[in-house]
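## Example record

The block below lists the input lines for one assembly entry, exactly as stored, with component labels intact.
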Amino acid sequence: KQEVTQIPAALSVPEGENLVLNCSFTDSAIYNLQWFRQDPGKGLTSLLLIQSSQREQTSGRLNASLDKSSGRSTLYIAASQPGDSATYLCAVWRASGSRLTFGEGTQLTVNP
Amino acid sequence: GAVVSQHPSWVICKSGTSVKIECRSLDFQATTMFWYRQFPKQSLMLMATSNEGSKATYEQGVEKDKFLINHASLTLSTLTVTSAHPEDSSFYICSARARGFPRNEQYFGPGTRLTVT
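Predicted structure tokens for the full assembly:
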């Protein structure tokens, strides 16, 4: 059974700081990994998707890396802004699976 | 990017009544749709998976007679909460996978807040 863990559960940083969110998964046989953002009371917005054959993906100030062998992914946010405040979720799609398995999320607060 | 809509965005109903939530893929054909439930401060819990034209597959512990899912077309899935009770109050989110999109990416709707009084 695939389990996904996100550390830390909550993070508060001052504006402008670079930060790293961590995601680990127990079964390395994955098809892809997605990072999502969720604002309070809203649905999920896909930020980055990394295929199992890829090592990283970048979009603007966001960079996600994937180390499949160690079962880890990181989401790097550069020059954080108050608008980045949200819950960040990572989810993996198992190679033999039929659904995404989500972590519990990291609640990020960026203080002005 | 691909867009998934949900209607209504929020609904309040009385205990014992039924509520229908619609999920639509606006600019793509969704071969598979997923329904999730989310409680405050928790992550998403998959309720069921449905493929167009087939019966939904429910996760363990989810009552299929209570949460009726219909995926009648490639752009529409509905979730009906029958005989709703206060414990059914939650945030329901649908998601869709696109036919022909090579990356197997899932797109999520904005969610529906259900409150049962």
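Chain B has a mean pLDDT of 91. The longest strand of chain B covers residues 30-38.
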